[in-house]
Amino acid sequence: MIRRSIFVCLLMPVLSAYAQPFSFGLMGGAGLTQDFQNYNLLPVGATNENILILGSSTPERWIGGATIEARLPLHLSVEADGLYHSLCFKLTAQFGQTPPDWGSVFAQHAITWELPVLLKYRLQLPLVKPFIDAGPAFRYSYSLSHTNPSNHGFAVGLGIEAHLWKLKIAPQFRYLRWARDQNVPMFGLTTVTDQVEFLTAITFP
Fold first, then answer.
1. CA 79 to chain centre
2. Domain membership of residue 134 as a residue range
3. In contact, 191 and 149? CB cutoff 8 Å
4. What 3-state DSSP class applies to 12?
5. 187: burial class by Cβ within 10 Å (0-12, 13-18, 19+)?
6. pLDDT at position 18, please?
7. Cβ pair 66, 81 in contact under 8 A
8. What is the CATH number of the domain that holds 27?
9. pTM, whole model, 2 decimals?
10. What totals of helices (H) and strands (E) does the chain contain, helices first?
11. Domain total of the chain
12. Domain for residue 6, yes or no?
């Protein structure tokens, strides 16, 4: 009898953890800030100051992916997202200034997946539930094209959640602070460390 009681006491927290409700769905939106730092650069070895390499950010803006969330006690939850975000810019060679004789224009991009893991707190109001979330953010990049985006940072979000039938709709503004880029190739662009995004999640149990 004692052994059974001990077994039940050990098993109950495990079952309680598995009983926490999960939700998953889609998340999408847009970046509201520039992807890269713009620059005007005199090429190495060039003696004519009228020859410039111009790098300029040309963001595509849209962001999309999936989200999953696990509810915890005390109006808390843990959320993990996987968001596709293409970072775009162009390199332009300028010859002369009055008027400028534009040379070749090269469109470039870096593909990234943003992977934030956030602790969320909801206010329990009757119609909508305002929330705030925060946590570490990770970033996987490929097709770098003269860039080397940093792979970690921190995210903070503020939004509201409403129910529509069995769906939950949660628009939010999210601020991300990425670490500074390292080992950027010559003529490459560094990403803007401070990013703001507007995102909306549509999830169901």
1. 13
2. 22-35+62-86+110-204
3. yes
4. helix
5. middle
6. 47
7. yes
8. 2.40.160.20
9. 0.79
10. 1, 10
11. 1
12. no
93 occurs within a structural domain: no
The total number of residues shown for the chain amounts to 205
Count of CB atoms situated within 10 Å of the CB of 79: 22
Each of the 205 residues of the chain gets a pLDDT tens digit; together they read 544 544 444 444 444 444 458 999 999 999 999 998 887 665 555 555 566 677 778 888 899 999 999 999 999 999 999 999 999 888 777 665 554 555 566 778 889 999 999 999 999 888 899 999 999 999 999 988 888 999 999 999 999 999 888 899 999 999 999 999 988 877 678 899 999 999 999 999 8
Output the six-digit token pair for 77. Answer: 């939850």
Contact 160, 6 (CB under 8 A): no
Look at residue 189 and tell me if it is in a domain.
yes
| Residue whose entry in the numeric block shows the structure tokens 């602070």 | 177
Point out which residues pair with 145 in neighbouring strands. Answer: none
94 within a domain of the structure (yes/no)? no
User: What tokens appear for 137 in the block?
Assistant: 């953010």
Q: What tokens appear for 156 in the block? A: 């903070």
- Position 142, amino acid: Y
